Amino acid sequence: MIQDKRFAKLLQQDKRFKPEAYSFVYEVLDYAHNRLHLGECCPSEPVNVAPEFESDEQDAEPPGEAGDESKHITGQVLADAARQYALEMYGFMAKAVLEGFGIKCTGDIGEIVYNMIKIGCMRKTPNDSRADFDNVYDFATAFEQDFVIGPRAK
Questions:
Q1: At residue 17, what are phi and psi to the nearest 5 degrees?
Q2: DSSP state at residue 69
Q3: Contact, 103 vs 17, CB < 8 A?
Q4: Which of 84, 91, 141, 127 is nearest to 109 (CA)?
Q5: Do 103 and 112 form a contact (C-beta atoms < 8 A)?
Q6: How many other C-beta atoms lie within 10 A of the C-beta of residue 111?
Q7: Is residue 90 predicted with pLDDT exceeding 90?
């Protein structure tokens, strides 16, 4: 599959994030759409694969056209959904797990999203910017919860 080749090439070029970081962002997108019911239908830009990721082979799916409507989530909303999802999935270990993936701040979530846009796996609208993900919240405090570790209630 061409996207697999693009993804492998991306991982070679950008070693900041583990493959799990990309899976996490896809899971967050699904969580935001299907569990939190976030997103509004709006036209997106056409899929534009960066030249270094283009292939002579035919894509399995034709790239989307400009104006195709999809459920869109802003960078700030996706970053907040990532915090909620991480806490739900990993509890008090959320910050450590994300850091293990290479995600140390909300800007890193933006880097991952824009890497996926670059290889044609995600789309954006004309109003989106990589900077939308910057400083949405502070990782040092966002994952602090009042977790109680102790014996189970009987």
A1: -120, 140
A2: E
A3: yes
A4: 84
A5: yes
A6: 19
A7: yes
